[in-house]
């Protein structure tokens, strides 16, 4: 969703005894603070933390680099304290989520102006035009944004500029802001190596950057239809397909789950954690109530050609933290009228699996991503 698609919301504050207001901008779906006060270089980190803890937005009027220092100080104050209590994995995950939510709320309350032309009108502010156009579109009136979110747009723009290598494609992809970055190679490698057969048509459900659709096309599938519910993901996938010169094989559509018609192969790598997403960027990882997982499995048979296969690519992270059991997953598959032909597995290879400072390090180290090969329980007659 782009800034132009979201409802317009204005925030107000008092500046030198006069009422002031500006358009609230958040590409990540954050709510505007109810109360905003102007602050400058004279505020201390402790005072800023007290205001943020009360839910007060702080509109920065001073030097941009000093604002970054205050943000860093706030970040230090939101780091979890050492916990000597022995906890279950489920408790560790709950505390981890609780801390991330608290951290996002506190850091999101240090605000900066983003004016007409996508310019931050503060001393020593960097040029953020390209990065913020990616996230918010062109700014045409006085606006206010979270400094933490702006810094995130800069980082995302740098990733987009240099690209992310995908070994299975022997190429780079250039994700749009708000699209899940394919930095975890396990799910891509599984789709690149699974027994393929000779499907004439394949669907890639929830395509994101279009990586899996591109892998299927480069493996010889003559027609791939990729879908995503997010306009940014559709734009990103179309760019990926175009860069790889696969336009004649891959079509990308805006759709909630399935396109019309049937396919010999249907692939889906849904969000793998059945919990509430705290932001739009989290939606690629968190799937409240397993909506996408269950929707995909429930709809497969209506879109699968007789004798075809569905590939469900899913991490077992949710099982390791007690949010879903293997029996739960098998029951959903069975209820959908599907059976398992086999599974391919890949151990965690991403960087967080080796980060011993991560409170969930033991879980991530043992995480396994599986490609479940599914077909109709009863062969078509």
TrEMBL record:
Record bears the keyword Translocase: no
Domain Methyltransferase small: 200-318
InterPro entries: DNA_methylase_N6_adenine_CS, N5-glutamine_MTase, SAM-dependent_MTases_sf, Small_mtfrase_dom
Gene Ontology MF annotations: nucleic acid binding; protein-glutamine N-methyltransferase activity
Gene3D superfamilies hit by this protein: Vaccinia Virus protein VP39
One GO BP annotation of this record: methylation
Origin superkingdom: Bacteria
Keyword Cell cycle applies: no
PROSITE patterns per the UniProt record, alphabetical: N6_MTASE
UniProt entry keywords in alphabetical sequence: Methyltransferase, Transferase
UniProt-recorded name of the protein: Class I SAM-dependent methyltransferase
